[in-house]
Design brief:
302 residues; alpha+beta; Uridine Diphospho-n-acetylenolpyruvylglucosamine Reductase, domain 2; Uridine Diphospho-n-acetylenolpyruvylglucosamine Reductase, domain 3; Uridine Diphospho-n-acetylenolpyruvylglucosamine Reductase, domain 1; 5-stranded antiparallel β-sheet; 4-stranded mixed β-sheet; 7 helices; 21 strands; 26% helix; 29% strand; binds flavin-adenine dinucleotide
Length: 302
C-alpha cells in the first residue's frame, strides 16, 4: 500500500505508528535500515483493530527483543510490529502454572518463577529474548527448550482472529515449530514444578557462569548463527566451523567471535551486506570442507 494511504488509515493509532522507522537500535546486531511502518502494540484490543484495518494487505514482521534477527539495510516494505505494555504482564495462574505475555523477557519469567518457588525455568535466565521469540525459535540451552515448559499459546492471525493452541498440538523441533509464520503469539502458559528459591538460585547462577565461560558477552551479535546439523553429524556446528573457516576472516566490521565461532559479531558499524557475506562465506567453507550444508538459526528480515 502507498504510504499516503497507510498514513490515512493508520492515523487513529497516533504515536504508536511510525513511518520510515529506524530498526538499527531494535536488534542485537545493531544493523539494519528502516521499516515502512512500525507499530508498537500496547494492548490486544488495539492490535486486533490494527490488523483488521490492515486487512492482510501488508507484509508483517513481528519483532521481539531482536536477539535472533538480522535486518537488511534497505527499507523493509511492510509493517514491523512490536508488542509492549499489556503484553509485558506475568501472573501466577495457580500452583506451578505461570501465564506470561509475549513481550516478557525470558530472564524476567525465570526470575518470576524463582520468586514463586517454581523450578524448570532456570535455563531461561541465559537466553536474551522474549517469550514470543522463544516460542518461535523453540529456544533453549543446557538440555532444556521452550517446549518442555509450555502448556499453550494464545495467538492472533493477520485478520485479527484469536485462538488458543495447546502445546501438544504443535510440533516442536530443534529451534523451530510447525506453526504458520503468519501467527503472532500474544501470551503463553507454562508449567514448572515445586522447588525452592535457594535451590533455583544456585542452579541459575551455575548456568549463567557456564554460559559466560563458553560464550562471548557484551558484543553485538545474534548468538548462534547456524543450527547444529544434528541429522548429519554428532559434531557441533562450532567444531565444523573451526575446522573449515579461517577464524580471522572478516568483511568490513563483520567478524567471527574468537570465543565462540558460531557467534558472528558486529565489531563496529558493520553493514547488512558485510554480515550476509560472512554468513555465506562460513556456510560455503563448511560445505566445501565437510560436505555438510548448514541451516541458519538466525532470522533475516529483508
Ligand atoms: C548473546 C546471545 C545468546 C543467545 N543464547 C541463546 C541460547 O542459549 N539458546 C537459544 O535458543 N538462543 C539463544 N540466542 C538467540 C535468541 O536469544 C533466541 O532465539 C530468542 O528466543 C529470540 O527471541 P527474541 O525476542 O529476541 O526474538 P527476535 O529476534 O525478535 O525474533 C526471532 C523470531 O521470532 C519471531 N517472533 C518474535 N516475537 C514473536 C511473537 N510475539 N509472535 C510470533 N513470532 C515472534 C520473529 O518474527 C522472528 O522470526 C542468543 C542470542 C544472543 C544475542
Amino acid at each position: 500500500m502507498e504510504v499516503k494511504k497507510l498514513k490515512k488509515i493508520l492515523n487513529q493509532f497516533g504515536e504508536n505508528v511510525k513511518f520510515e522507522y529506524d530498526l538499527k537500535k531494535k536488534n542485537w546486531f545493531n544493523i539494519g535500515g528502516k521499516s515502512k511502518v512500525f507499530y508498537r502494540a500496547n494492548n490486544l484490543k488495539e492490535l486486533v483493530n490494527f490488523l483488521k484495518v490492515l486487512n492482510n494487505e501488508e507484509k508483517i514482521f513481528i519483532l521481539g527483543a531482536g536477539s535472533n534477527t538480522l535486518i537488511n539495510d534497505n527499507l523493509f516494505d511492510g509493517v514491523v510490529i512490536q508488542l509492549a505494555k499489556n503484553f509485558n504482564n506475568i501472573s501466577l495462574l495457580r500452583e506451578e502454572i505461570i501465564v506470561a505475555g509475549s513481550a516478557v523477557l525470558d530472564n524476567s519469567l525465570s526470575n518470576f518463577a524463582m520468586k514463586n518457588n517454581i523450578g524448570g525455568f532456570e535455563f531461561l535466565s541465559c537466553i536474551p529474548g522474549t517469550i514470543g521469540g522463544g516460542i518461535k525459535m523453540n529456544a533453549g540451552c543446557f538440555g532444556k527448550e521452550f517446549k518442555d515448559i509450555l502448556i499453550s499459546i494464545q495467538t492472533i492471525d493477520n485478520f485479527g482472529n484469536i485462538r488458543t493452541i495447546p502445546s501438544n498440538q504443535i510440533k516442536f523441533n530443534y529451534r523451530e515449530n510447525n506453526l504458520s509464520d503468519n501467527l503472532i503469539f500474544l501470551s503463553a502458559s507454562f508449567k514448572g514444578y515445586s522447588s525452592n528459591l535457594k535451590k533455583i538460585e544456585v542452579e541459575m547462577n551455575k548456568l549463567k557462569l557456564l554460559k559466560k565461560k563458553n560464550q562471548p558477552t557484551k558484543i553485538k551479535t545474534s548468538g548462534s548463527t547456524f543450527k547444529n546439523p544434528i541429522m548429519q553429524t554428532e559434531k557441533k556446528v562450532w567444531e565444523l566451523i573451526k575446522e573449515s573457516v579461517p577464524l580471522d576472516k572478516s568483511f568490513g566490521d563483520a567478524c567471527i567471535s574468537q570465543k565462540h565461532c558460531n557467534f558472528l559479531v558486529n565489531k563496529g558499524d558493520a553493514k547488512f551486506k558485510d554480515m550476509k557475506k560472512l554468513i555465506d562465506f562460513v556456510a560455503k567453507s563448511v560445505l566445501e570442507k565437510t560436505g555438510i550444508s548448514l541451516e541458519k538459526e538466525i532470522k533475516i528480515l529483508e
